[in-house]
Amino acid sequence: MALVCECPLGTLPNQIDVTCASDLDQIVKLAFQKPQATAPFVTADPISDADSWTALLSASGDTKIVLSPATANVVIPSSEAVYIGENSNESVNGLGYYVGENNIRVTGEIHSPSQEVIDALNELSCFSDVTFGASQLTVYMFVRRIKGVSRVVAKGTSVAGSYQGFQIFNFRVSSVGSEGYQTKSKYMFSFDMQPDEWKDMEIVQLGFNPLSLANVATT
Asked: Which of 45, 143, 196, 218 sits CB 3.0–4.6 Å from 1 for a disulfide?
């Protein structure tokens, strides 16, 4: 996320009063989709409705959505500041220049999957190759169910009630890891995101349990 300032500078921005908290909590499942020219979830096909998801899981074209297995230990790190010219003659008083935020790498684990599942996940790497410039893969993130309420983390649009996935790059899955006796086999996964991709993040309550959704085989 590059630092972009108005010129000339105006007045200080108004701050928004916080009336309620908004927390991501635990990510338990991911949904992948190719980028769409228009938002795949709109008022007529709300993101909170299981039927909207089922239709996209059943699609055979570019609107198709595929689900990951259940995920564990998903970590979304905060971005960090990027400075240039610090402690040198290259900046005024050697203070450096703040030029924006770094890209972030989301990590997580998948426990005890079949090799067929891993093979399918590995194919996502090609769609998220950074060579494309604009990612060919987006992701939605489902949050654990709390007090009977499930939520999804999606990217909002300028149109109220419209949602799409976050663009991601460099999706990859590790080789199998095991710690031996009475442990789960683990595959680590990760993907990269640009920090400003989170700017339009919205957490939406769902009218169903996302863990009950299943991939649909299509030709």
From this structure: 196
Does residue 46 sit within a domain?
yes
> Which residue, 4, 28, 52, is CA-closest to 163?
52
pTM, 2 dp: 0.91
- Per-10-residue mean pLDDT of the chain, 219 residues long, equals 81 83 91 96 96 95 95 96 95 95 97 95 94 90 94 95 96 96 96 94 94 79
Q: Quick check: 164 and 63 in contact, CB under 8 A?
A: no
Residues 6+ apart with CB under 8 A from 157: 39, 163, 164, 200
| Cβ atoms 46, 161 nearer than 8 A | yes
Q: Answer positive or negative: Cα dihedral of 117, 119, 123, 128.
A: positive
Residue 201 lies in a domain: yes
- Stated as kind and residue range, the H or E segment containing 55 is helix 50-57
Sign of the Cα pseudo-torsion (45, 31, 210, 150, in order): negative
17: tokens are: 């009063």
